[in-house]
Design a protein that fits this description.
With about 110 residues, this protein is of the alpha+beta class. The protein is built from 3 helices and 5 strands, in the order E-E-E-H-E-H-H-E. The protein has a 5-stranded antiparallel β-sheet with strand order 3-2-1-4-5, covered by helices on one side.
């Protein structure tokens, strides 16, 4: 399951695995992404300020989302000089995955 939420200029992606493993979350601020990527993400209307957006994932989607979230977490504390650039790249990859899921019609429900 994937939950997306927005509080003002903060965005959170929360993944609860379907079969195994711990919950994994990643959050970022509006100014972390390039404006063009942010505008695309906002045009999907999946990060709503008033309610969470929840997606039920297939096993394949679950693994793909978890893989990217793990890469993001590894990079957060890596100390690598280009760590921030890699995180942005991985976040864009994650947004593309979310876009595919969004368009596949697997929206479970929205909840306040």
């Amino acid at each position: 399951m994937l939950t997306l939420r927005r509080k003002k200029d903060r965005y959170a992606i929360d993944h609860i695995p379907g079969k195994y493993g711990p919950r994994v979350a990643y959050s970022f601020s509006r100014d972390f992404l390039p404006e063009s990527v942010l505008l695309h993400m906002l045009s999907l209307d999946v990060f709503k300020e008033t309610e969470d957006t929840i997606y039920l994932l297939t096993e394949k989607q679950d693994k793909a989302i978890l893989n990217v979230l793990k890469k993001l977490h590894r990079e957060q504390n890596s100390g690598y000089i280009f760590s921030e650039h890699l995180q942005k790249t991985y976040l864009v990859e994650l947004i593309h995955l979310i876009t595919k899921i969004h368009h596949s019609g697997l929206l479970a429900r929205s909840s306040a």
